[in-house]
Specification:
3 helices, mainly beta, twelve-stranded parallel sheet, about 475 residues
């Protein structure tokens, strides 16, 4: 397990990974046949009633035995049932598919660490683990007491797809830990715990989390749902009901290599809970020293201290987010949160552009608070209006704030009042292209404020591309699904 990048070992690992990928691609291009699937039978006592296990060959008694026998490009298929492990399955320098019989078999094909061992370790690999339930994992303890990735550990390659990762523990990354490259996507990550950081997921120096549902995880210290250290990207995910001391939902820390990022995600109902008398910060997110948050819906989070929605320390870029209905905890029962920055609290800096900060609750700075150091606010909507270039006040006119539908009504003051400068995102939370003109009397095309872009123009072919945009770029507005 690595502590950093650099040196001959990394060069050799990169070469091995490259060679494996090239070899497999060459096999595909040459039309070379890959062997038949290798099937793993669960113990008789842990099989699924009514399922016929006959007719599958060759079969293996353990996942590790099938992996060891497989050739790159082959599929190792776990037949329905529960596989109770006494040792983790190691896959290093291989290109395999380890999966259930079908995606529909995910919930009845279970790899169980029994609270004793991790389920999978993927290193220097292009292996994909998919369509499985991975539960009750426990990361091995290293010299010094640290442990990483309760259910899954990925280092420099490999992916987990359409899996359930649950009820697992580690010091770092209770559910899964991504080190360097690696991905978890289309998965449910729930009820995991970390005694330090990353209750559900921890990324270090890279790794991506895509289209995942991450809930009911806990970290004793940082990042109840996800902790990204010096890199890592979260996109199109839902993160809710997680808890930690710093960053109930998500915690970012930028050291010196890669800036973490979260985009097009919904982060809600997370809590930063204080320890003893120490205040907790960042109910939804805490961003330390740098990171990017864009096109996110951040609502109904709570901090037992500062930054009910988001807490920024020193540096961060928050762009085109809707940050609403967050609060700092009300400890004396007067209905007002006792901390600062119900929506956002900045300490030492930060840049906020095109955000809606509304309906948040705190004693000091209900929508935005600060420790007195300068942060850059431009083209945001809040009440009262924030001093600074392009900031406006008033009500955002959501379609239904009570239902947490944060789309804009046609008369919203957020329409066409944002800024398209400084790297503003080119799509919105829902994936619609932006900017578009949201007013029938204007040809002006600038970003709206908030996570959603509003467009009055019709979309004749129903492909989510406004007619004016397709005409402007030489596309056929009557041809649906044209990219």
């Amino acid at each position: 397990m690595r502590g950093g990048f650099g040196g001959k070992d990394d060069i050799m690992k990169s070469y091995i990974t490259f060679r494996l990928v090239v070899s497999w691609l060459c096999c595909l291009l040459a039309g070379m046949a890959v062997g038949a699937p290798r099937y793993v039978l669960p113990p008789v006592a842990d099989r699924v009633a009514g399922f016929s296990y006959s007719g599958y060959t060759p079969t293996y008694a353990t996942i590790q035995a099938a992996v060891n026998a497989a050739v790159d490009g082959e599929h190792v298929i776990l037949l329905p049932g529960t596989f109770k492990l006494s040792a983790q399955t190691d896959i290093e320098g291989r290109s395999l598919f380890v999966r259930a019989l079908s995606a529909a078999d995910r919930d009845r094909t279970i790899v169980d660490g029994q609270g004793l061992v991790r389920t999978f370790s993927l290193r220097l690999t292009s292996t994909t683990v998919r369509d499985l339930t991975l539960r009750n994992g426990k990361a091995p303890v290293l010299t010094g007491g640290d442990s990483y990735g309760g259910a899954v550990y990925i280092e420099d390659g490999g992916a987990v797809e359409n899996c359930v990762i649950e009820n697992s523990t580690a010091v770092y990354g209770g559910g899964i830990r991504l080190y360097g490259t690696g991905m978890v996507r289309d998965s449910i990550i729930r009820r995991n715990s970390a005694t330090a950081s990353g209750g559900g997921v921890q990324t270090s120096f890279g790794g991506t989390v895509t289209n995942c549902i991450i809930y009911a995880n806990n970290a004793s210290d940082k990042g109840g749902g996800v902790y990204c250290f010096d890199g890592g990207e979260i996109t199109q995910s839902t993160i809710y009901s997680n808890t930690a001391y710093y960053g109930g939902g998500v915690r970012f820390y930028f050291d010196k290599t890669f800036r973490p990022k979260v985009s097009r995600s919904r982060i809600y109902s997370n809590k930063a809970i204080k320890r003893s008398t120490s205040a907790a910060t960042g109910g939804g997110l805490q961003v330390v020293l740098g990171g990017t948050v864009e096109n996110c819906l951040i609502h109904d989070n709570e901090a037992d201290g500062q930054g009910g929605g988001v807490y920024v320390f020193t540096a961060a870029s928050l762009m085109n987010n809707t940050i609403a209905h967050n609060l700092t905890k009300d400890n004396n029962g007067d209905g007002v949160g006792d901390g600062s920055g119900g929506g956002v609290h900045t300490s030492g800096g930060g840049t906020l552009q095109n955000n809606i900060l509304m309906n948040n609750n705190a004693l000091t700075g209900p929508n935005y608070g600060t420790d007195g150091t300068a942060a850059i606010y431009r083209n945001n909507l809040s009440s009262p209006s924030i001093p600074g270039n392009g900031n406006i006040g008033g009500l955002p006119l959501f379609e239904s704030a009570d239902a947490r539908n944060y789309r804009l009504q046609p008369t919203s003051p957020c329409i066409d009042t944002g800024s398209s400068a400084n790297g503003a995102p080119l799509v919105d939370y829902a994936g619609m292209l932006r900017p578009v003109s949201g007013k029938t009397t204007s040809t002006l095309r600038v970003h709206d404020i908030g996570a959603y872009e509003y467009a009055w123009v019709d979309d004749v072919d129903g492909d989510k591309m406004p007619t004016w945009w397709e005409l402007a770029y030489g596309l056929n507005p009557g041809w649906p699904d044209q990219p």
